[in-house]
Amino acid sequence: LKKGQSPMIGGKDHTTHHLVYSGKTDKQVWFVFLFLSILSLLVAVAIFSFAIENQYLAIVLGFTYFLIVFGFLYRNTIKYKQKS
Predict the structure, then answer these.
(1) Residues 50, 80: Cα–Cα separation, whole Å
(2) Average pLDDT in the 58-84 region?
(3) 26 Cβ neighbours under 8 A, 6+ residues apart
(4) Is 84 exposed, middle or buried (0-12, 13-18, 19+ CB in 10 A)?
(5) Structure pTM?
């Protein structure tokens, strides 16, 4: 709305689009998100098991994982733009 566009029209500014702009194929983008999903599951299980013993360690591990994944994906949105 701020840009004067309808929210019902799809954009080309999603993370998946930026991964394609970086040269990855659709299948590679799918594998990136599959890998991140599986890794997130493993980190969630680790955080849950650490939370029982040490809540501080669980919080630090979860926040660190979030920053790494967010940084990786956000870096792609800044570095690779749609080719005109």
Answers:
(1) 37
(2) 84
(3) 20
(4) exposed
(5) 0.70
